[in-house]
Specification:
The longest helix is centred in the last third of the chain and has 5 residues. The chain has a six-stranded antiparallel beta sheet. A hairpin with a 2-residue loop joins strand 12 and strand 13. It is mainly beta. It starts with a strand and ends in a 19-residue tail after the last strand. The chain contains one helix and 38 strands. Helices cover 1% and strands 41% of the residues.
Length: 600
């Protein structure tokens, strides 16, 4: 065991804030994202979630981190913990680059409850991280990627590299990364799904150390490389009639259909060695441009549900967004609970966001609007997050159209009561930032994002405590594509876009939920069977969200124009029998209990 290489980031936590005063680092128990729903250590580059694990009532979020700046490079694993997926506390940097094998890329963490690895005698809660180590090679002119393991006896606070690394070497592959490990219930084997170019390869092991290749699954229409695979098992039925459906999820940096980066999935079965795809086509998990590298929590799987989170950004332009925008360095989406629903077109994923109340929300109810009317809500920064529900109690009429417009208005145009206005005054002087338009007759959602940020050079960030452990003071390997301040980058032009999303025919009641926070919007249609995530950028001014409903028919049940209630935390509207409401955001149904192996 002389070759073991222990490492720790020390007692000081990583705060993720470049403006933290010297000697004034926040405690490790301080809330990382107070007042926000979306996790993000503002000021330093983050990307993929990398090692999501639930144990002893605590959710752990490991993620890709560059603690030396606001650009990609010198990748470490950051670490945060939460009791409920909502309130995140930063912990010390978890895993820095390996001294010989290179940067700590994306991977996963499992709980070795029965000590199958032999690393945890007498301990049922040992963590094992299975990750890609990547080192620049002058011989190969690219990053040589291998699979390595590290282990922790203290719930991810300190880690030790295993002397057998790399446990899965690279046999000449250019792209070979992002292992997701889980335990297969029927065979008892640990399974690793790893991206290899345009395919996903499977390995299995009894002890998490010695691995054997079992199969390869070729993906459809992959022009470049897939990343971040995850294999999710959904068990449905009961009383001996259970049936398993597996969903194989993976990220594409480039989409042959022209949709850009995103996460897709196919359904089928898995026998412990090979994934067998069914007849149904692949689908997108999220139809927006800013949902990438999704991963599920190990130890939180239930027969009918999983919990996932993704990087809320896009590899096509992430490195070109303006440095002055805080969220440019990375945010995570809201955690989402996944269930499987069945229809004529086969099984589909349904996503339910984990959300919570915000104390700064206004308390207002507005009801009974005229046909073809619009209403405005001020979206001031101290009122984020903002959740809006537009819904019907039955299948909507073909004439239904709903338009949500997030726009800026000059400060002097703010409505005195910060409440409603007519469509004409709402449009005066406004600059649209993000527009959602749903037309039920066409089953079409059109999204236009029209901000105009300019890329710029950025100042160097001050390294947080613990950042120098196991790595150099300067990035060992970086990629940066920012241009001169005020210039227009061809890459950044992909940020300005109009997307048209076709919605499958639905007979269920119409549900349109928008969760809006500074820098990000997440839209859930039809109770989450169609989802779209978009970043947005705005300059100074008053932010407003205009809700415009058209072609609504039927008498007004209540002629009352305005009422106020203390029971609601956000505005509510009722339009000719159609309900537009921003109800109190429900607290997460926090799941408790220790992980018992997280078998899938």
């Amino acid at each position: 065991m002389a070759n073991l290489k222990p490492f720790s980031s020390g007692s000081s936590p990583f705060t993720g804030r470049p403006d933290a005063p010297a000697g004034g680092v926040r405690s490790a128990t301080g809330t990382a994202n107070a007042g926000r729903l979306h996790f993000g250590p503002l000021g330093y580059w983050i990307n993929d979630p990398a090692g999501l694990v639930y144990c002893d009532g605590v959710y752990h979020l490991f993620y890709q981190l560059n603690p030396h700046g606001r650009h990609w490079g010198n990748m470490h694993w950051g670490h945060a913990v939460s009791p409920d997926l909502l309130r995140w506390n930063h912990r010390p940097i978890a895993i820095p680059p390996h001294p010989e094998l290179g940067m700590a890329f994306t991977g996963s963490v499992v709980v070795d409850t029965d000590n199958s690895s032999g690393l945890f005698p007498g301990d049922t809660n040992g963590f094992v991280a299975f990750l890609t180590t990547a080192k620049a090679s002058t011989e190969h002119h690219h990053l040589v990627q291998t699979q390595s393991i590290a282990y922790s006896h203290d719930h991810g606070e300190t880690w030790t590299w295993h002397p057998a690394n790399p446990v899965i070497p690279n046999n000449g592959e250019h792209d070979f990364r992002d292992p997701k490990v889980f335990r297969h219930r029927e065979t008892g084997y640990w399974i690793a799904a790893i991206s290899r170019g345009g395919s996903i390869v499977f390995y299995r092991s009894r002890d998490l150390i010695r691995w054997r290749f079992t199969s390869v699954h070729e993906l459809d229409y992959v022009p470049d490389v897939c990343e971040c695979p995850d294999l999710l098992r959904f068990t449905e039925g009961g009383s001996g009639g259970e049936k398993d459906t597996w969903a194989l999820m993976y990220a594409l940096a480039h989409d042959s259909a022209g949709h850009g980066a995103g996460v897709r999935y196919v359904t089928g079965s898995f026998d412990g060695r090979r994934f067998h795809r069914d007849i149904y086509p692949e689908r997108r998990v999220d139809y927006g441009p800013d949902f990438y590298a999704a991963q599920s929590w190990y130890g939180r799987a239930r027969p009918r549900t999983h919990v996932i989170v993704a990087w809320a950004n896009n590899p096509a332009y992430a490195k070109s967004l303006p440095a002055r925008w805080p969220e440019r360095t990375g945010l995570m989406t809201l955690p989402r609970r996944l269930t499987l629903v069945h229809g004529e077109a086969g099984p589909r994923l349904r996503q339910t966001p984990v959300t919570a109340p915000h104390p700064g929300s206004p308390q207002r109810r507005v009801s009974s609007y005229r046909e073809n009317s619009a209403t405005c809500f001020d979206c001031l920064r101290d009122r984020f997050p903002f959740q809006l529900h537009v819904g019907t109690r039955s299948a909507p009429p073909e004439e239904l159209e709903v338009r949500l417009q997030l726009h800026l208005t000059p400060e002097d145009r703010r409505h005195p009561d910060r409440g409603t206005s007519d469509a004409k005054s709402a449009a005066a002087g406004k600059t649209d930032i993000l527009v959602f338009r749903y037309q039920h007759a066409q089953r079409s959602l059109t999204v236009t994002r029209s901000a105009s940020p300019a890329p710029s050079h950025e100042p160097a960030a001050v390294a947080p405590p613990g950042a120098s452990d196991g790595c150099t003071a300067e990035p060992a390997y970086t990629q940066e594509t920012t241009g001169e301040a005020g210039s227009h980058s061809p890459i950044l032009e992909r940020f300005w876009r109009t997307d048209q999303i076709r919605i499958p025919p639905e007979t269920s009641p119409f549900r349109f939920t928008l969760i809006l926070e500074e820098g990000i919007a997440e839209l859930f249609l039809y109770d989450g069977t169609t989802v779209a995530t978009y970043q947005w950028i705005a300059a100074s001014g008053t932010l407003r969200l205009t809700v415009d409903t058209r072609h609504l028919h039927g008498p007004l049940d209540n002629p009352e124009n305005h009422t106020t209630t203390e029971n609601l935390t956000l505005p509510a509207l009722e339009v000719a029998g159609w309900t537009l409401s921003t109800e109190p955001i429900k607290q997460a149904d926090a799941e408790t209990g220790a992980s018992k192996g997280g078998d899938t």
